[in-house]
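Long-time lurker, finally posting.

We've been working with Xylosidase (Streptomyces griseorubiginosus) and I want a structural starting point before designing mutants. I don't trust myself to interpret raw outputs, so I'm hoping someone here can both generate the structure tokens and explain anything notable. Sequence follows.
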Amino acid sequence: MPTFSNPVLPGSRPDPSICRVGADYYLVTSAFAYFPGLPVHHSRDLVDWTPLGHVVDRPSQVSLTGLDVSDGLWAATIRHHEGTFYVVVTLARGRRGSTTHLFTASDPAGPWSDPVALDAEGIDPSLFFDDDGRCWFTACRDAAEPEETGPGELWMRELDLHRQELTGPTYALWYGAVRGAWVEAPHLYKRDGVYHLIAAEGGTEHHHAVTAARAESVTGPYTTDPRSPLLTHRHRGAAEPVHNVGHADLVDTPAGETWAVVLGTRPTDGTHTLGREVFLVPVEWTDRGPVFAPETGRVGLSERLPAGVAAPPAPDGRPVRDDFAGPALGPEWTGLRGPTDHLVFPLPGEGGLSIRLSPEPLSSTGTPAFVARPQQHLRMRAAALVRLTAPAPGQEAGLVVFQNERRHATLALTVDGDGTRQAVLTAVDAGISTRLGAVPVTGTEVVLAVDGDEAAYAFHVEDGARSTVGSIERPFFSTERAGGFVGVHLGLYGTSGTGEGEAHVRWFEYVPDRD
Ligand code: 6LW
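Top reply, 14 upvotes:
Generated this for you. Predicted structure of Xylosidase:
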């Protein structure tokens, strides 16, 4: 039986939401405080996804400055109705609360509109268009009477599409299959006259699950689907390759099948570093409701192909080298909290990438001179050929393994007052920097490299010969240790106390599935 490999979108791309228009599927995932925000991917077969653009690509749309990397844009839903694409999303601001925003576009590649703030409490907003064209907004908020209902409440109001505001009464829909189990991520679907409310329960980690309720009328009353959870890996042992599955969104294919995108993780010895990734699972509708993974009951690393989809070519595992030849960075690169194209940009003519050294450290909640891409394979190598253009004390530039602003590691070129040049490995933990090693460098242009695997990230310098600078155990970068919602990003950065100086990166290479 022809199969495809899961995850279909590897690396930190959580909270997937999907819609189809004709032969085209569009997927949106959370990017938190990374900018541009809310990446949109496109596919024709559900298996092979390419970046299409971002919902948030202008700082005037959303301000992410001051936010931790795991705050920002959370758990969007994408829908299409009568020629317009809609995205609703939470802007989470730590303890300062969250707000809900609606974006629209006629082309999902963009441009997307400025956001419209919706008067909606809570997180994980979603939209459902009923047969009569009415649009129903759902989300998850703290329940008014948690001692009776459990803490989480899924609620609904009508969205007036013309005025772009919520209208009419608020309906409390459901408190989850198990009260107190943090019901969230609601999405509504209608099948054979019945409304199915699909939700997540158990939190986004080990106990994560897909649960469901159903109703005869869109506003309820909803009754728990007694088969809940419909999908979970919470009962599976440590040997299970995929964990934490949940946060499902469903889509029908032109061939008449239904598939779900869910988030899941691939842990090693109980911790994961690649973040929450997008997995694709078949769904079968029965008169009892949707059955997830009907043949296997689980989300596998390999699944049967959707009907009518040709077998995708096997991943070639070849290194991807970016020479930064285009006028702008490719869509896989991202910065933090705002545009970085004035700080990190390809050099036309000369080639390579210029990094304008910035006083903003990686540990700040601003926009450092930093660009990165999600780490997508546990065993991988990232390397870059880097030079400080006019080295001076206080300057540093190089590679970064970034989990969050309080936890990351850098392998940087530096220069001392006496002109001694070194490559220095530094780990930042809870905001405290520790120098883990240094090797002298003689060449002006040096390869800085990191090899990651199950056990560690090992940092090397190639300066004529290859020398090892040091290594950091992999779980240091895991979400379990770091907290928050993101996986590791691999990137390039440059800082200097004065904000003066420049680094040049001739190329950046990512080698997947290194032996
Ligand atoms: C998101 C919630 C969740 O809002 O994690 O896995 C939160 N589920 O639905 C942040 O991604």
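Before you design anything, note these points.
Residues 14-15, 30, 74-75, 123-124, 184-185, 200, 204, 247, 263, 485 surround (Z)-L-Arabinonhydroximo-1,4-lactone (CB under 6 Å).
The first helix runs from residue 146 to 149.
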